[in-house]
Each structure stands twice: as structure tokens, then as C-alpha cells.
Amino acid sequence: MFAKICGLREARHVTAAIDAGADAVGFVLTASPRFVTASEARELVGIADARALTVGVFRHETVDEVARLADASGVAAIQVHGKRTRAEMSKLEQIGRTLIRAVPFDDPSLEEDWGENLLLVDAPRPGSGEAWDYAAMSGLSEARGRWLLAGGLTAGNVAAAVTAAKPYGVDVSSGVETAPGVKSTELIRAFLAAAKA
Ligand SMILES: O=C(O)c1ccccc1N[C@@H]1O[C@H](COP(=O)(O)O)[C@@H](O)[C@H]1O
Prior knowledge:
EC number: 5.3.1.24
Structural class: alpha/beta
CATH class: Alpha Beta
InterPro entries: Aldolase_TIM, PRAI_dom, RibuloseP-bd_barrel, TrpF_fam
Mean pLDDT: 96
Family: Belongs to the TrpF family.
Shape: globular
Bound molecules: the ligand O=C(O)c1ccccc1N[C@@H]1O[C@H](COP(=O)(O)O)[C@@H](O)[C@H]1O
Domain N-(5'phosphoribosyl) anthranilate isomerase (PRAI): 3-192
CATH topology: TIM Barrel
Largest sheet: 8 strands, parallel, barrel
Keywords: Amino-acid biosynthesis, Aromatic amino acid biosynthesis, Isomerase, Tryptophan biosynthesis
């Protein structure tokens, strides 16, 4: 099971996540309690040292702004939330990094391939920690191939969520925090142990 730990802001949490088996680590470059500047993200990308996929997370930024921040931070992948068009997705593809298209679970384009490398299916409010009916995605796997499940996951519910939705991987932020933006090494380890089991 592919696992991404998102919203990391401290070197020790990047190291802990990768040492515990994270396949990807995410840095939020958009407005959020987990916001990091491009130069802070660049330091964290260096700590990851190519041992995990480094992901920059964006929401309302234009394609040009995403490209600029991806360059400045050095992330290997871009994860784009927010209302996007196919035309924008084509331009985002041309940035030349792994492209993750994030959509809420009720998005009508869920089944469509918009050129992304990975689809991420999330709660309507990204980063809110709100759980939803993961079983509603049980039919998605065959049609979509590789997609990630997110939104309100924790060490306590990830196993049941994976059984219900059958994703390729999982993504978590709030569920490994003690308060918004405050990550916990123990919760990161517990989440990865549960997800990988
Ligand atoms: O984490 C944020 O603050 C955030 C802000 C803007 C866009 C995405 C954000 N995070 C993503 O939200 C999902 C689920 O988060 P949670 O586990 O429910 O807190 C995850 O994909 C994060 O990458």
C-alpha cells in the first residue's frame, strides 16, 4: 500500500515518516495551517533526499504560480486541488513533474482521465480531517487504476477504509497531528504501520 504523509513542516517529521515507510511526503505551498514557504520546502526536499516522492500541494494557484513554486521548492510532484479545467491540467502536465489531481468524492470527473499520473479522492474540504463514506469508492479501482484515498484517515480507520474503497494508496494530514499543523512522530508511525499492514 502506497502511503503519503502530508503537511510536513519539520525535518524530524520528514525523517520519521520516511524511516517508517512513507512512499511520499507532502509540503503545503498554499494557504493552510501547514503552509511552508518554497525555501522551507526546498530544505525539507533535501532532507527527503529522494528516499520518498516529494509533493508540493496547491489549491487556488494559477498554473504559472504552481510552476514557479515547484521550481523554487524542487518538489518532484505537484498535487493540485480546487476547480480545474482540462486545459489547465494539460498545462500543469507540461510542468514536467508527477501530477496528482485532487478531487472531492462527489466530483463528476472522477472516472475521467485528465492526464494526471495519480488521482486523489478527498473530502470536500481538503486538510479538514473530515471522514466520509469511503465505501462509495469501491467501484472506482478497476476503472481508474492508480488512485489515492484521503480525507479524515487515521491509524484507527485506515485499515477499514482501504478494505472498503480498495485504493492504490492513502494520504493523511490531520490524522497524524495533535493540533492543526502540529505533526506527531508517534501518530505518523502508527498510521504507517496500520496502512502498510
Ligand atoms: O492540509 C492542508 O491544509 C491542505 C490545504 C490545501 C489543500 C490540501 C490540503 N491537504 C490535503 O488534504 C487531504 C486530506 O487531509 P486530511 O488528512 O483530511 O487532513 C490530503 O490529501 C492533504 O494532502
